[in-house]
Design brief:
The complex is a heterodimer of chains A (about 110) and B (about 110). Chain A has no helices and eleven strands. Chain A has about 110 residues and is an all-beta fold. The model of chain B has no long low-confidence stretch (mean pLDDT about 95). The chains are: A mainly beta (about 110), B mainly beta (about 110).
C-alpha cells in the first residue's frame, strides 16, 4: 500500500506571497492532520480534516487554512507569508480518528525569503 | 492537559552501546503511547506503539514498555548501529479525551563507529 505523499517537497517563496501544499493520504484513511516542524518549536499541530470538514484545530493564526476533498486528499494554504513560516510542513493520515496511529509523509520544506 | 516530556539531547553513543531515551507523560485518561523516528530529510516513521498498561512495543531491536505506575514509556535498544542515528519522538494520544496527538520535543541520537 502506498504511503502518504506530499507535494511539492521543496518550496521557496518571498514574504507576502501565499502557498498551497498538497497531501495524499494512505488509501482508506479518512483523517488527515497537518503539522509544522521548526527547530525552535518542534512539532506543532495545525489542524485535522475528516470527511471534508475541519474537525480539530491547533493554535495558529487564520493565515493558515486547509481543506479536504471527497477522495480524502488535503491541501494546506498559508497566505501573506512571513519569515517565521519557514518550516517543514508534515502531513499525517490515520484511519478514522486523529488519535488513531498516524502515518506521516516526507514533508514539504518551505523557505520564506 | 495531556503532554509528553522527553530527555534532552543530543545523545552520542559508540556503536554497539546500550541506548535509553526517557519519556514520561501526563494524561487524564488512558492514552496510547508511541515512538516515532525521523531520519534526516524525511518525515516521521512509526517505530513502535503500546495501547495499554504493561504492553511492550518492539520493532527493529527497539523496545518500550508502557508503565502506568511511573507514567513512563522509555525507549531502549541493546546494541545501537550507525544507521540508528536519527531524531526520536515520544508521543501520546487518547481516543476518549483527546483531539490530537501530543509529541515530545525529540531526542537527537548520533551513533559513531
Amino acid at each position: 500500500k502506498a504511503g502518504v505523499t506530499q507535494t511539492p517537497r521543496y518550496l521557496i517563496k518571498t514574504r507576502g506571497q501565499q502557498v498551497t501544499l498538497s497531501c495524499s493520504p494512505i488509501s482508506g484513511h479518512r483523517s488527515v492532520s497537518w503539522y509544522q516542524q521548526t527547530p525552535g518549536q518542534g512539532l506543532q499541530f495545525l489542524f485535522e480534516y475528516f470527511s471534508e470538514t475541519q474537525r480539530n484545530k491547533g493554535n495558529f493564526p487564520g493565515r493558515f487554512s486547509g481543506r479536504q476533498f471527497s477522495n480524502s486528499r488535503s491541501e494546506m494554504n498559508v497566505s501573506t507569508l512571513e519569515l517565521g513560516d519557514s518550516a517543514l510542513y508534515l502531513c499525517a493520515s490515520s484511519l478514522d480518528r486523529v488519535t488513531d496511529t498516524q502515518y506521516f509523509g516526507p514533508g514539504t520544506r518551505l523557505t520564506v525569503l | 492537559g495531556d503532554s509528553v516530556t522527553q530527555m534532552e539531547g543530543p545523545v552520542t553513543l559508540s556503536e554497539e552501546a546500550f541506548l535509553t531515551i526517557n519519556c514520561t507523560y501526563t494524561a487524564t485518561g488512558y492514552p496510547s503511547l508511541f515512538w516515532y523516528v525521523q531520519y534526516p530529510g524525511e518525515g516521521l516513521q512509526l517505530l513502535l506503539k503500546a495501547t495499554k498498561a504493561d504492553d511492550k512495543g518492539s520493532n527493529k531491536g527497539f523496545e518500550a514498555t508502557y508503565r502506568k505506575e511511573t507514567t513512563s514509556f522509555h525507549l531502549e535498544k541493546g546494541s545501537v548501529q550507525v544507521s540508528d542515528s536519527a531524531v526520536y519522538f515520544c508521543a501520546l494520544s487518547d481516543a476518549n479525551t483527546g483531539n490530537q496527538f501530543y509529541f515530545g520535543t525529540g531526542t537527537s541520537l548520533t551513533v559513531i563507529p
